[in-house]
Amino acid sequence: MVKGPRKPPKPLLTEDKAPLRSGRLRPRDPEQPRLLFDPMPDRVEPCLAVLKNRPPKGPEWSYDIKWDGYRISVHRELSKVRILTRGGFDWTERFPAIASAAAALGPATFILDGEAVVLDEMGRSDFGLLQGSLGGRTGKQPAGTALMFAFDLMYLDGHDLRKLEFAARRHILEDLLDEATGAIRLSEEINEDPERLIEHACALGLEGIIGKHRDRPYRPGKTGDWIKIKCVQRESFAILGYELSSAMPDGFGSLLLGALRGGEYVYVGSVGTGFKHQQARALRKQLDKLKTNKPVIRFKEKTRIATDPGLIAEIDFRGWTSDGKLRHPSFKGLRDPEDAAAVYSLDVGDA
């Protein structure tokens, strides 16, 4: 995999090729009626990638690595730095190294879009390591080893860049992070055939790749402007209960997982690998607090204990069986509720 060549500077243009000018995106502060610049948004709803089986080819697509962590945005204002989760929660205190690195990028004011990660000994991002550094699900301890890989820039020095095409935003981002050191790094664009790129990513044990359409503005939600291709499928499923284990009486044998279909939970199988004994015991204590006599799915087996779907598990799997169950699932960790992870939704017509 090789880094793509640096592109020549491009003028800041809007979609209609006119010079970039500030716009009235929201009412101005009445105490500053002659403010010349775009106000910094308090929060930007993130652009989300649509899952694809194969990467599209063509010069209009930019590709980089899919990082395995928490999606964050870093807001650097003149007097402070804020780090927000995908759901809009302030996690600045959880990522002190990233906050310090953002402050050192001043005096610019900006909003960076990226992923907070912890790297393993091979330099790969690892969701489990990130969770452990934070103290587990809902943990509040600072993740001193966490880094941010930045892949987009929504605001810079009084200009809202969201109407610019990604190629222009990317060029400005590269300039901003050209001399950055420490806990904020540029997610490198990789100039290689995307089919070969995903093969290399999978061979290296990475999660996958992300493609971004060079000509599109920054739009929230799943618009198709960004796509993702995964080496292994990974989704979030609700934990609906657990299977008792004679080998580990204070733990469990497996977790019972559910997805959503038409607003109702559907059982999609169990997962019994991916967690250590200590992790299983701690999770059992959390699940026992969620035991219920009115489960969303009723299990006939006496060894299966139903719980309210209050915990969301991140699961790797290799596909689906003919009867609608996960194939070769593996537990990766619990999602923090402030991360705004959505439970996987099945199409209404799925079996």
Structural overview:
It catalyses: ATP + (deoxyribonucleotide)n-3'-hydroxyl + 5'-phospho-(deoxyribonucleotide)m = (deoxyribonucleotide)n+m + AMP + diphosphate. Belongs to the ATP-dependent DNA ligase family. By secondary structure, the protein is α+β, with helices and mostly antiparallel strands. It has 2 domains: 50-230, DNA ligase/mRNA capping enzyme (D-amino Acid Aminotransferase, Chain A, domain 1, 2-Layer Sandwich), CATH 3.30.470.30; 233-339, Nucleic acid-binding proteins (OB fold (Dihydrolipoamide Acetyltransferase, E2P)). Helix content is 14%, strand content 27%. The chain contains 5 helices and 16 strands. It has helices spanning 96-104, 127-134, 166-176, 194-203, 277-288; strands at residues 50-51, 61-65, 70-76, 81-85, 110-117, 147-156, 159-160, 184-186, 208-213, 226-230, 233-243, 254-261, 264-271, 304-306, 312-317, 330-334. The strands form 3 sheets. Strands 3, 4, 5, 6, 7 and 8 form a 6-stranded mixed β-sheet that branches. Strands 11, 12, 13, 14, 15 and 16 form a 6-stranded antiparallel β-sheet that branches. The protein has a 4-stranded mixed β-sheet with strand order 1-10-9-2, covered by helices on one side. A hairpin with a 4-residue loop joins strand 3 and strand 4. It is globular and about 65 Å long. It starts with 49 loop residues before the first strand and ends in a 17-residue tail after the last strand.
Uncertain spans: none
Question: What is the count of structural domains?
Answer: 2
Strand content: 25-35%
* Run of helices and strands: EEEEHEHEEHEHEEEEEHEEE
**Distance from first to last alpha carbon:** 40 Å
- So what's the overall shape? globular
Output mean pLDDT.
87
Structural class: alpha+beta
How many individual helices? 5
